[in-house]
Amino acid sequence: MHALPAHSNTLCAVANDAVSSGIMLSPFHSISRLHSIPPGAVPHFVRLLSSEHLNVVDQAVWALGNIAGNGSDCRDFTVRCGIIQPLIDLISRTTGIAHLRNVTWTLSNLCRNKSPPPAFEAVQQILPALAHLIKHEDREVVSDTCWALSYLTDASTDRIQAVIDSDIVTRLVQLLGSSEISCVTPALRAVGNIVTGSDHQTQLVLDCAALSHFNNLLTHPRSNIQKEAAWTISNITAGQPSQIQSVIDMQLIPHLLQIMARGEYKAQKEAVWAITNLTAGGNVDQIIYILEANALKPLCDLLVVKDAKIVQVLLDGLLNILNAASKRRLVDQVCLMIEECEGLDKIEALQQHSNQDVYKLSLTIIDKFLL
């Protein structure tokens, strides 16, 4: 939540306008439900967006941004009161960077919350403004724009497509290489959301050379960036074999295995998904590639984690590797490698696991390959 801009004369002017309609600014920092908003407040502040006094406008933008950011009901109410077009018009009217930052932040709040998401008509109205703002040179403007896009892409494929159609993806991908972490973080989230869409939508991201940034992202000093990057790759390796090959060709698999071996647990989980998705959707050559990249040891080492779902995913990956190995008559060699990684003892122990899926998978691997 933004702090109230420190313009005392402006605050007095807005307060005077507000008092004339029985409205005060002060409650808006704590509004949490639609019924908490004083009657007439939102329409009043929407009208103030057209004021001749820019500082008055700025206070109204701040108030509306705080209201819109307090949940889907509040957000949708500000939209019904007509906030979008006058807010967008301010982008061309605004000369000071502080004012533009305020407008961009409020626009991002109009994109927040997904239960339910913003009306599709509102999204379509806002996207051209975001396509303009993401090209701005100011870090805060770009950051809030990227957060807005991350909210909008955390949705169904038709909404992802609307973002793609706004010609924004190339710039989002470019920002993955930014030196500003405040821009990289939301840009990566938005790109990651886009590749949760259809294979075609994922390919559009790949065609923008997005993977060229992931050697740095997967080895970033911030573990959260590693996690988000691995999550993004996991959605790409869930795609077509040609898309999996793009990940392999960019030499990203060793970084994923390194995260599995030494990363923080949240990043490890995403890397596990990335590798197992590859084993599920890749061709035999691709699966043999990760075998030759020494994927077995980190897969086996993580079998001791307490998260039953991740153990299940690890076992799925191992089973897929063994099935691929059987097509190349490499089962005996792979079984020996698993034993050398101390994986056999771990898989045998998992036959006593309380989770039925883990129990069944471990039993299948033992009975089919390791006896």
TrEMBL record:
InterPro entries the UniProt entry points to: ARM-like, ARM-type_fold, Arm_3, Armadillo
Coiled-coil ranges from the UniProt annotation: none
Keyword Plastid: no
GO cellular component annotations of the record: nucleus
GO biological process: protein transport
Tagged with keyword Ribosomal protein: no
UniProtKB keywords: Protein transport, Repeat, Transport
ARM repeats: 40-68
Similarity comment: Belongs to the importin alpha family.
Name assigned to this protein: Importin subunit alpha-1
